[in-house]
Known about the structure:
The complex is a heterodimer of chains A (441) and B (395). Chain A is mainly α. Chain A folds into 2 domains: 98-301, no CATH class; 307-433, no CATH class. Chain A is 52% helix and 4% strand. A two-stranded antiparallel sheet of chain A has the order 1-2. Chain A has a two-stranded antiparallel ribbon with strand order 3-4. In chain A, a hairpin with a 2-residue loop joins strand 3 and strand 4. Chain B has helices spanning 4-10, 13-16, 25-28, 61-66, 91-98, 117-126, 131-134, 139-147, 203-231, 240-253, 274-298, 365-377, 381-385, and strands at residues 39-45, 55-56, 78-79, 85-86, 102-109, 159-162, 178-181, 260-265, 305-311, 331-336, 343-345, 363-364. Chain B contains 13 helices and 12 strands. Chain B has one domain: 3-Layer(aba) Sandwich (Alkaline Phosphatase, subunit A), CATH 3.40.720. With 395 residues, chain B is α/β, with parallel strands linked by helices. Helices cover 35% and strands 13% of the residues of chain B. In chain B, the strands form 2 sheets. In chain B, strands 1, 5, 6, 7, 8, 9, 10, 11 and 12 form a 9-stranded mixed beta sheet that branches. In chain B, strands 2-4-3 form a 3-stranded antiparallel beta sheet. At the A-B interface, helix 20 and helix 22 of A face helix 9 of B.
Amino acid sequence: MNASPPRGWQRYEPSDSAPWDLQRVVHLHRRAGFGADWEALQRDLDEGPDAAIDRLLNPQQDPAFERLAATIGDAATASGNPNRLKAWWVFRMLKSPDPLGERLTLLWHNHFATSNRKVNNLVWMREQNDLLRRHARAPFGDLLRAVVKHPAMLTWLDADSNRKGRPNENLGRELMELFTLGAGAYAETDVAAAARALTGWTITRQAFEFRESRHDDSELTILGQTSPLDGDGLLDLLLARPETARRVANRLGGLLMGEGAIDHEAINSLAAGLQRNGLNIGWGVETILRSEAFFRDDNLRTRVTSPAQHAIGALRSLRLADSPPSSLLVAEWIARMGQDLFYPPNVGGWTEGRSWLSTRTLIARANFASALAEGALWRSPDEVDLVVGLPPGSGPIVERLSLLFWGVAAPDSVPALAKDDEPTTAEAIARLLSLPDSTLG
Amino acid sequence: MFTRRDFLRTTSLVTAAPFVPTFLAKTSRAATPVADDRVLVVIQLDGGNDGLNTVVPYGDDGYGRARKALRLKESDLLRIDDHVGLHPRMKGAKQLFDDGRLAIVQGVGYPNPDRSHFSSMRIWQSGRRHDADLEAYGWLGRTLDLTRGNGSASVDAEAFFVGNQATPFALWGRRCGATALTELSDLTLDGSFPPLRDSDRTDLGSFVTRQMRSAYTAAEAFAHAEQAAVASRTSYPSTEIASHLSVVAKLLRIGSSARVFYASQTGYDTHASQLYTHGNLLREFSDALKAFLDDLRANGLDERVVVLAFSEFGRRVAENDSKGTDHGAAGPVFVAGAPINGGLYGKTPDLSALIDGDLPLGVDFRSVYATLLDQWVGVSSEEVLGERYDPLPLI
């Protein structure tokens, strides 16, 4: 990490206007993970921001978890049933000691949105998912090269039918528009030239192969530079562009910062910092998480949570992942809320933010809350103990839950309750999870 | 003690909410032209429908020669004219035809037919014929991409797929996606929900509150719509395709802003013992279509809706040895609804002029698409299909 953070990202020091309080501990966990249980919140409150952020950035390895997850993943791909692969990822999100890693994997799944609808190969979809996870904090170039050369992406974007004399522009276009530069930073002639640079890439025996004979090695002009260019050269060229750094910065800002919490200039300086640091994603994440901007008041509860975050967050903070619910059912609920894992709607991925909140998906969120509270996510409702993760104490149940979910006793949207209204734990959970504040994190 | 369910019993959100939910779309987004209210419903007859036993050219000697086990008796057919009649079990469709609400386009297909379900369906769903284009986006997805309003704040679905399968490729857009609705309960609140306090803390906070109240209100409106449907005694047969179409009708009744709806009926892959199965499928399809259009009419929605029903290919003219038929080529397409010019279109196939034992192509399916796109949906078919196709006088 550079000694001095880029402009707009000065380091956070607790102060009177932004104290290290329960609300900020909850905020950190909701943004950089899936929320935390009461014990973890108290621990982080005691130990201070540096220790809390360190733990998220450098989580402890858990070989036993990895072995179990791998076994579940193997069984899922062998079954040929995509729902089991979704359940595998849900299991990881529920139990992983590295929630930030899973959130980043989700981010990259959306950035490199690939759907099994067309790929139709669970082994490849899982491999891609593991690539996203492995490179989640790496230099962006490592991630990009690994993902675009994997058969899942090559199939998704028709690299196989892109050959000399018969270029298919799909990969070239999305590479520029979605993966690196972003719309508006290139011309149609650049797309055509990029497609020619990528000719020769194909899949042979389930793996990437460069076939010289199909490659168009003529001189190409891309973004004003003229040279003979192959796919690797094209990636290098795109990675070096400032627009790519800005796109990565925007992605990280979108993941970790709320709506309207940062301006253009902060993104530009983060982008410049990323470029100086070899587009290192981990550096970008750390810069944001340790920043004063991240903990400012106007960044609290200003981001719409994704369906996966919503569902997993409720389960993890209530410690209901300890007696794990059916990950198949949880994956199904996440899909109903609008995020069908491994099946993003199109090449652009899910439109995040406010788009998560349509009529149907909000009804799904409310119904998920009921299902959770009624124990319907478990094989038998008796398996779940809703009280296990409640903050201790004798205060009203709604207030205790509110502290656990949002770090405050009563956020704006919680209506005043009648004096004699003391709901059961299940009722309180269902109610609070159907409030506007539950969709924000 | 105040429970979630008590709240639902005691409060009508429709009256409690001080605004029109976005789900009840066009009313709240006022200045939209009337043309925007036009809706296209696509029904996919999945598996390759035996068109020859659907719209039967009984006047052609070749029919009896080709079909021994599967031959439908002339006296049982529902006569359309002196040459063709509908399958005896398509009474609903026949009523629609007589009422001017059903157009039958004969001999629809595409050049150089591919008998694979997958590639043939891909061709129909993409609306393209060249291999490279088939991998891109679906014809309805591209249509929605073109009709998508700029800067619209709406987060409601642009299209609905009603069914249990994955969202069909036809609906994949570059930027637009369809909402897959598996069951009515997707729009039904299981419990009640807490009263929502207005939040003016932030723009986002008030957006979420508004959106949430709107969703919960829509759920209640939907519940009312369901009750209304019972009260108006519009009855649907208890088949899967009828239930899918009844969901579409309900979505329209409660004011969904989606312009494209899609449902599919599976089971048309009848390689063996076809007679009974196929008759049932056609009865289910035709009765469901009739119930759907009658429901729309009863609710004053029928001028807004056109239905297209297609299958990825017809079957071979000659039956096989298992009293079934194998994958063939061209077949009939149905276009239905109050706005259309009902009748019989396209040349009745001549069974003495088969190509490799298949019915020849009479009408390119993209002509049907082009007609609907240009004259109903109001987008340039050339842009969606990549080429110009001659329209049919269907609308």
